[in-house]
Design goal:
Elements: E1 90-94, E2 100-101, E3 105-112, E4 118-124, E5 130-138, E6 147-154, E7 163-172, E8 179-189, E9 199-203, E10 208-209, E11 214-220, E12 226-233, E13 236-244, E14 253-259, E15 281-290, E16 297-307
Parallel strand pairs: 2-8, 10-16
Antiparallel strand pairs: 1-3, 3-6, 4-5, 4-7, 5-6, 7-8, 9-11, 11-14, 12-13, 12-15, 15-16
C-alpha cells in the first residue's frame, strides 16, 4: 500500500497554532485521522513520477468554524480542509466537504492555468495512505496564466469500511517540481462494492476484452433522460457519445450504443501513462449524467475493460 508522500512547498505558510478539538456531526460515523502537511492532493496528459521532498506535516485548515470533525480518543486532530487554497491559485469546488464519494470520484474546480496545464490529484484515506492518483487537465482553450476551469475523474481503491478521507489537487512548478499551490477537501470514502445507485452498466462486464466498436448497454435514471457514454484509456478519452434513455423522464430507462474509437497518435506511446501500440491496455467504460443546473457530473458508473493492441483500431 502506497504511503502519502511528503510534498515540498516553494513558499512556507504560517505555522498552525496548538490544535484544538473540534467536533462535528456528519450523517455517518467518521473516524478521526491525521493527514500529513504534505502537499495536498482526468483528459490527455502525461504522468510523471515525482521524487521525495521535504514538506513538514500539519493539519488541514478548516473552511469555517461551523465545519467540525469527529475525533476518536488518542487520534490527531484533523480539520475540514479549505476550498480556498493557500496561495490563491486553486479552488476545489467538487467534491464538497463531507460528501460521500466512491470510485471514480468527480473532481472540479478552477485556477490559474500553469505552463503544463496539468494538476496532480490524489484520494487519501484515514491513515494517510494514497488510494488513487491521477492527472487533471485545465480547459485547453484557455491561455497560459489566465483563470480557467478544470475537471476530471479519479479512480481509487475503495476501503473495506466507510471512513474519513480527503481529495486533493496539487499544482507543481515545472522548474523544480516544488509545490506552487494545493487545495484539499475532507470527504467520506464509501466502502468497496458501493457505487452509483442511478446507473447500471450491463455490457460489457468488468474485465472484458473489448472490440472496436465496443457495445455498451445498461439502465439509468437521469434528470434529462440522457447519459454520456465514453471509453477511457489512462488519461485519454478515446470515444464519447450522448445517448437518450428509453421511457419517460424521471423513470429508469435503458441505453444502448456502439462506440467506435480511433487509435491515438504513435507519439503517445512514448509518454508516461500511455501503453505501446502493441500492448493490451487497461481502460474504463464510463457512463454519467450532468446536473442541469451547474453542469457538474451528478452520477457516474464505470467498468474496467481491456483494450487489445493498446488503442490501435483493432478489428
Amino acid at each position: 500500500m502506497m504511503r502519502l508522500r511528503p510534498l515540498r512547498m516553494g513558499v512556507r505558510p504560517a505555522c498552525v497554532g496548538p490544535a484544538a478539538v473540534v467536533v462535528i456531526a456528519l450523517s455517518t460515523t467518521l473516524v478521526g485521522c491525521s493527514l500529513l502537511r504534505s502537499s495536498s492532493t482526468p483528459t490527455v496528459v502525461l504522468g510523471v513520477e515525482r521524487g521525495p521532498s521535504t514538506l513538514e506535516a500539519r493539519p488541514i485548515l478548516p473552511t469555517s468554524a461551523a465545519s467540525p470533525t469527529v475525533i476518536t480518543p488518542g487520534s490527531a486532530l484533523v480539520h475540514a480542509s479549505p476550498s480556498t487554497p493557500e496561495q490563491g491559485l486553486l479552488t476545489l469546488d467538487v467534491p464538497e466537504p463531507g460528501q460521500k464519494v466512491y470510485s471514480p470520484v468527480y473532481v472540479r474546480g478552477s485556477g490559474t492555468v500553469p505552463f503544463e496545464r496539468v494538476l496532480e490529484s490524489d484520494v487519501i484515506d484515514v491513515d494517510g495512505d494514497i488510494l488513487g492518483s491521477g492527472l487533471i487537465l485545465f480547459d485547453p482553450a484557455t491561455p497560459f496564466g489566465e483563470k480557467a476551469a478544470y475537471e476530471g475523474v479519479l479512480y481509487f481503491r475503495q476501503p473495506e469500511q466507510q471512513q474519513l478521507g480527503s481529495v486533493r489537487v496539487v499544482l507543481r512548478s515545472p522548474r523544480d517540481d516544488s509545490i506552487v499551490d494545493y487545495a484539499q477537501v475532507l470527504v467520506v470514502l464509501l466502502p468497496a462494492g458501493v457505487g452509483s445507485s442511478e446507473i447500471k452498466i450491463d455490457v460489457p462486464v468488468a474485465g472484458a476484452v473489448i472490440r472496436n466498436p465496443v457495445h455498451v448497454e445498461g439502465t439509468a435514471r437521469a434528470p434529462q433522460n440522457q447519459v454520456t457514454v465514453r471509453l477511457r484509456s489512462g488519461p485519454a478519452i478515446l470515444a464519447a457519445d450522448t445517448v437518450a434513455l428509453t421511457g419517460e423522464i424521471g423513470a429508469t430507462g435503458r441505453f444502448s450504443v456502439d462506440l467506435g474509437y480511433a487509435p491515438l497518435p504513435a507519439s503517445t506511446s512514448r509518454r508516461p501513462g500511455y501503453p505501446a501500440p502493441s500492448e493490451n491496455a487497461p481502460g474504463h467504460i464510463e457512463v454519467f449524467f450532468r446536473s442541469p443546473k451547474d453542469g457538474r457530473i451528478d452520477e457516474i458508473a464505470s467498468v474496467p475493460v481491456v483494450i487489445p493492441g493498446a488503442v490501435a483500431g483493432n478489428p
